[in-house]
Amino acid sequence: MSIAATVTLDNRFARDLAEMAVPWQAEEVAEPRLLALDATLAAELGFDPDWLRGPDGVRLLVGAALPDGATPVAQAYAGHQFGGFSPRLGDGRALLLGEIGTGGQVRDLHLKGSGRTPFARGGDGLAAVGPMLREYVVSRAMHALGIPTTRALAVVATGRPVRRETLLPGAVLARVASSHLRVGSFQYANVTGDVDLLRRLADHAIARHHPTAAGADRPYLALFEAVVDAQASLVAQWMLAGFVHGVMNTDNMTISGETIDYGPCAFMDAYDPATVYSSIDHGGRYAYGNQPVVAEWNLARLAEALLPLIDGEQERAIELATDALHGFRRRYDDVWSAGMRTKLGLPAGLDDEVVAALVKDLLTLLESGRVDHTSAYRALAAAARGDAEPVHRLLPGPLAGAWTQRWLALAPDADAMDRVNPVYIPRNHLVEEALAAATDGDLAPFTRLVDVVSDPYTERPGLERYAAPAPADFGAYQTFCGT
């Protein structure tokens, strides 16, 4: 079967926004070898998974063999990185191969680690096996948890070593997203001073992600409001799951509301709002507890970029954008509060202040006791069924006992809790174990971990170690961006 008969890659982004698309080609891969493939996602995209596993499919997955008419491009964008603005970032080691339309949905097929581009800024444009497999397993877990995310289609080993602190085996990640439009995309268009480019970018985003905005009296304000809503919901879901993104720069925040760029990311072990996993986040800017504030700050930067489109009079544009930005906290609080009610199995109709006090007291107990965030809620579900031993083990002491009695008096629904509180997440010690083995050529631990986290809510016999917190000797955990 030929590539042309298998897939069509549209180039709408390159056509609509040529000023933000540099035509480019992936570097040659001498010895591509498939390490991981999401067969379910492949089928959703219209691929035959067996074909993708074959020589022609693997060459597509590294950008070496593309259908006629495909126009791979490196996308331009700007961004605030740890608060400092860079007007020209872009895909330094990535390529948009094109857009795939299936079932009425358009999605990007995008490579990471495919070689230097004009945006590489001194980098080698390559990626190592470990970080690409990290993105694969974490994005698989996020999708299974129901959290909006870009998705990893495949990881292909290149056979080429990559120099970081040491020489590591290289890899290319093929990922899928609703698009790769970011807050930084709008910052880039705005900083050019080309209002027509900014308008075309906004129209492209509206058509692709938020079509109802097109019919609004102020479509570009409506676009901003839609992004605020999507991001507030997304970050609330991160917080409920204990996910720490690690590098919430404006170029890592999508217009679609999907999680993107799993670099120094991790799921929190012991509950602590100050948790930081990124090796380069020395000041804790992107700590777990700061994520809602940072998201709102990033959205303020999007508002600034959109001001010329929101209203011709700047003061009026600022007023309208500021009012819209205030919607972030309302939406975030609504999603987070509803999520906590469900995590605790609370019945409808309870007074909001009663719930807020209950949640606040629980989080204080979890933080002071260094309690594992994920295990705590499954232990509480066991207590709701009459087995208090797991809770007493995790939350010892009279204060915890008093809180548990307050909560149990509200008749929590244990089955509802189990539907939203995972048994299995990509626990950090297991991720590191799997990535280390894969880097040395053994994919079995990685494959097993992916299988486990792909069904996070169903407790299964024999998987106890995947549900257990990190061992005491695991120590402080750091992750790296992989560049």
Notes on the structure:
This protein has 483 residues and is of the alpha+beta class. Among the domains are: 3-177, no CATH class; 346-412, no CATH class. The chain is built from 20 helices and 11 strands. The chain has a 5-stranded antiparallel sheet. The chain has a two-stranded antiparallel sheet with strand order 1-3. A two-stranded antiparallel ribbon has the order 4-5. α10 packs antiparallel against α11 (314-325). It is globular and about 65 Å long. The protein starts with a helix and ends in a 16-residue tail after the last helix. The model has no long low-confidence stretch (mean pLDDT 95).
Mean pLDDT: 95
What share of the residues does DSSP label as strand, in percent? 5-15%
Instruction: Characterize the overall form.
Output: globular
Strand runs, count: 11
Task: Please summarize what this structure is.
Helix content is 45%, strand content 13%. It is an alpha+beta fold and 483 residues long. Among the domains are: 3-177, no CATH class; 346-412, no CATH class.
